[in-house]
Amino acid sequence: MKNxxxxxxxxxxxxxxxxxxxxxxxRFMFMFGxxxxxxxxxxxxxxxxxxxxxxxxxxxHIDIIHDYMEASWGDSGWDILPFKNxxxxxxxxxxxxxxxxxxxxxxxxxxxxxxxxxxxxxxxxETFKKSKAKVFIPVIDNKPAPVVVVEKAYFMKKLxxxxxxxxxxxxxxxxxxxxxxxxxxSVRKDYDGFLRNINTLDNYIKANFEVLKNQDKxxxxxxxxxxxxxVSERAQAVIDINGEMIFSMISDKCNVKGRVKxxxxxxxxxxxxxxxxxxSIILPGVVIGERVRIEKAxxxxxxxxxxxxxxxxxxxxxxxxxxxxxxxDKYPDLLCNGYTFVSTNVFIPKGVSIxxxxxxxxxxxxxxxxxxxxISDGQIIAGLK
Length: 385
Description:
With 385 residues, the protein is α/β, with parallel strands linked by helices. It folds into 2 domains: 4-213, Spore Coat Polysaccharide Biosynthesis Protein SpsA, Chain A (Alpha-Beta Complex), CATH 3.90.550.10; 233-385, Hexapeptide repeat proteins (UDP N-Acetylglucosamine Acyltransferase, domain 1), CATH 2.160.10. The protein has 10 helices and 29 strands. The strands form 6 sheets. Strands 1, 4, 5, 6, 8, 9, 10 and 11 form an 8-stranded mixed beta sheet that branches. β2 (31-32) and β3 (36-37) form a beta hairpin. The radius of gyration is 22 Å and the shape is globular.
C-alpha cells in the first residue's frame, strides 16, 4: 500500500531468563523453526501486505542487523533507525523526533518482534482503513498479535508524549506499543495464524519442538503466503550414504554423515560419521565431529572454527543424556527439564562428556576445560577471563 511502512523493534534479551542465548544479536534475530529469524516472519508479512518500506530500530548490534538485512533482503526497501548517533551517544529529543517524522510514512505498522508470529496480511491496510479506527490490532488465538496499525499523526503524538516525559530510550517504543494495544478506541479482528510467546530459554526449546512435531500443520501456514528465510545458505543439504534422518528437520547446506533423530538442524550444520543427535536443536554453522553423541541439548550459533580445529564439538564427545539426576546448580529454574545449553562459539575438546542440565557459556575453548573430561549433571563451564 502506498504511504505505508513498518516500524520494527524488539526488547532487550533478559539474561535472567535466556542466560547468554542471543547475547550477541538483537532479540528479533533469534532463530526459529529450522531456518528463520523472528525478523523473517515480520518482513515476509509486511511484503505480502504491500508495505513500502521497513524501518528497524535498535540501540545496539547495528552492524549485525545491517549485514543481515543486506545479505538476506537486498539493499533496498529497508532502513535502520538507531537510537544512538555515530559517537554512541543518545540523540536529543528534538533530533529523535525529527528522525521519526522524516522516516515514517502516513500509515505505520508498529511491530514488537519479541516472538515468532505469522498470519495473512494481504488485506491488512484495507481492513484498517475500513475500520475507521486510529488503532487496529490483529488477534490470534484470543491473543493480540505483536502488530499494531496506526496513523502516523497518532504515533507521533504518542512519541512526543514519551519524549517529553523523559522516558528511557530503551523503553520508548515498548511504552508506545503498550499504550496503543490498550487504546480504548482500538478495533480488533481475529486472524488464523501462528503466535508463540517465548519468554524463557525453556519456552524457546519447547516452541521449536512443537514445530518439529507438527510439521504438516507448520507447512500449511505458508501455503497461501510464503515465508522467506534470511538464514538460508542457498545450497543443498546432503545426507551421506551412512547418514540417517528420523523424524527430524534439516536445512540448507547441512551435511549429515551420522544419525539424527527427533532433532532440528539449522543451515550449515555438519554431523560427522558415526555421530548421533537425539532430541536436540543445533543452530547455524555448528560443526560436529565423529562418534559424538548429543541428546537433549540446544547448541547455539557458531561463526567459525578455532585455529587448527576441524569441529566445534570434537570427536568422541558426549553432551546431555535422556534422564537427568539434578537441575542446574546456579540456574535451577531455567535448566531443569534435562536440556543442556551450549552457548555460541564454543569449542569442546575430544573425549569430553557433559551431563544433563549443564550450561556451557560463550566462547569456551580448550583451556576452559583444563583436565576435566567429565562434567556431571547441572554443572557450568565458563570461559576464561
